[in-house]
Amino acid sequence: MTVNDDVFTNWKTREEIAESMIPLIGRLHRERDVTVLLHSRSLVNKSVVSILKTHRFARQIAGEELSVTETLPFLQALTALDLGPSQIDIGMLAATYRDDERGLSVEEFTAEAVAGATGANKIDRREPRDVVLYGFGRIGRLLARLLIEKAGSGNGLRLRAIVVRKGAGETGEDLVKRASLLRRDSIHGQFQGTITVDEANGRIVANGNEIQVIYSDDPTTVDYTAYGIKNAVLIDNTGKWRDREGLSKHLRPGVEKVVLTAPGKGDVPNVVHGVNHDMIKPDEQIISCASCTTNAIVPPLKAMADEYGVVRGHVETVHSFTNDQNLLDNYHKSERRGRSAPLNMVITETGAASAVAKALPDLGAKITGSSIRVPVPDVSIAILNLQLGREASRQEVLDHLREVSLTSPLKRQIDFISAPDAVSSDFIGSRHASIVDAGATKVDGDNAILYLWYDNEFGYSCQVIRVVQYVSGAEYPTYPAPAPVVV
Questions:
Q1: Is 464 within the bounds of a domain?
Q2: Backbone angles phi, psi at 446, to 5 degrees
Q3: Which residues touch 103 (CB under 8 Å, ≥6 apart)?
Q4: pLDDT digits (tens, 9 = 90+) for 379-426
Q5: Is residue 230 located within the same domain as residue 303?
Q6: Which of 170, 390, 426, 434 allows an S-S link to 452, with CB 3.0 to 4.6 Å?
Q7: What CATH number does residue 213 fall under?
Q8: Same domain (yes/no): 58, 168
Q9: Which residues pair with residue 214 across a beta bridge?
Q10: Is the residue at 284 inside a domain?
Q11: Average of pLDDT values for 80-108?
Q12: Which long-range contacts link 119-125 to residues 24+ away (Cβ below 8 Å)?
């Protein structure tokens, strides 16, 4: 047998193993509300090739081989346990098992590592929390995709309605157009599933989820209980109201909490999941998820501040153009944003730097910021220039950020890539708040410059959903538990 034959045989073997993993992952998700992860990346509803690529990507981050031959035994061990709703990382199980010197079997080690999700400790399955989307634009439709995806196990969150402006709509044609925009997206691709339109009842049906379309120009006129909606979390992705007074208009019958997908003003708490989401008071009804850029810079900033201290910093964001800019030169209330977005780099403002103080009140360091819009439709990069509290080497900083991305409570927020030829389109669809580009990172004494990619549409939407899960009590624990970030 030639070397090439060996490689091919090895690939076919791993392909067969990955194929055998799919029904196990699906059954755990549907029957027990368990999401199987591999170094924080979900394996639910993934293809054979996707599972193999996720293993390969995890190897590139961790710097060591991780094969399906290693992770399959842990997945098989999970199916034999009486598990409750949870997220279980088989990549972390395999990695920690390597270092365990007690001589435990895979079954014994797995049972011990996920003990909090079994027996008397396990969480009972609960009725899903109703969710309403107020607005159905770029972020609204991505949130819909994520909510529909999460409804597959019958857990956590259930999208019940979307509210859109009156206009040419309230007709079957309007429903068809909105369903079509949900089905196909020029950036994020096809919706994974089936979508039909129920014109008689004014609904879009996606993967069996019936979503009522409500037409209204005034949130104070909607009674959500008339549609069977109760105790809902309403996500306002219009950005029309940003203060407590305006957002309180959404607190109508059937709605219990309001989550804003833009920076909040006044006393509205600005939340970055993974950093300060645990400061949300149980009785808080109005919450902001801040901006996509704030979500991109705050987790790595916290990781650096906790380890090295930060004296001061500046963030320059190179941001994709958005719907609030013009395709061609035309009138705009903002001077530069009136110029053609796909033809120009446009200097603009960002409130992300000032939002850092709200998310990290103990930081103390002054962070300034500026921004340039560029002619790409999605994925941005934040260049975070920091003066550290102590000197460090480039390798030390990279090792720290790699470890944070793999094992810390920030691993869902921070990703890490070492590919030398990475470009913006590589990160379309990333579920992380930001991705550290190792090759671009610069460190000189107490000065560190981090290049942080982020999908300002999809990655941000994932952060919003995490906040909604948290305030709904549907954010399930992860096993093995991530190591705390050392302060």
A1: no
A2: -100, 15
A3: none
A4: 999 999 999 999 999 999 999 999 999 889 999 999 999 999 999 999
A5: no
A6: 434
A7: 3.40.50.720
A8: no
A9: 163
A10: no
A11: 91
A12: 119/82, 121/84, 122/82, 122/83, 122/84, 122/85, 122/86, 123/84, 123/85, 123/86, 123/476, 123/477, 124/84, 124/85, 125/33, 125/84, 125/85, 125/154, 125/155
Return the pLDDT at 4.
61
End-of-domain residue from the set 77, 100, 121 = 121
462 flagged as catalytic: no
- The number of domains in the chain is 3
Fill in the DSSP letter of residue 169. Answer: -
Strands 414-417 and 34-38: unpaired
Q: Return the DSSP state at 241.
A: -
Give the gyration radius of the chain's Cα atoms: 23
Q: Is residue 480 part of a domain?
A: no
Task: Specify which residues 387 forms β-bridges with.
Answer: 312, 447
Residue 345 placed within a domain: yes
Is residue 90 a contact partner of residue 36, using CB atoms and an 8 Å limit? Answer: yes
Check whether residue 100 and residue 172 sit in a common domain: no
Per the structure, the complete domain to which residue 41 belongs is given by: 3-121
Q: Does an H or E element contain 387, and which?
A: strand 380-388
Q: Which of 37, 175, 258, 292 is catalytic?
A: 292
Strand bridging mode 434-437 / 86-89:
unpaired
* 441 and 311 share one domain: yes
Res 66 pLDDT > 90: no
Indicate the pairing of strand 129-134 with strand 232-236. Answer: parallel
pLDDT in tens, 190-243: 998 899 999 999 999 999 999 999 999 999 999 999 999 999 999 999 989 999
116 with 232, same domain: the answer is no
- Contact between residue 40 and residue 32 where contact means Cβ atoms under 8 Å apart: no
Q: Note whether 251 and 207 are same-domain residues.
A: yes
- Are 342 and 327 in contact, with CB atoms under 8 Å apart? yes
CATH number of the domain that 421 lies in? Answer: 3.30.360.10
357 and 318, same structural domain?
yes
**What pLDDT was estimated at residue 487?**
37
Q: Are residues 240 and 181 in the same domain?
A: yes
Tell me which residue has tokens 């395999």: 94
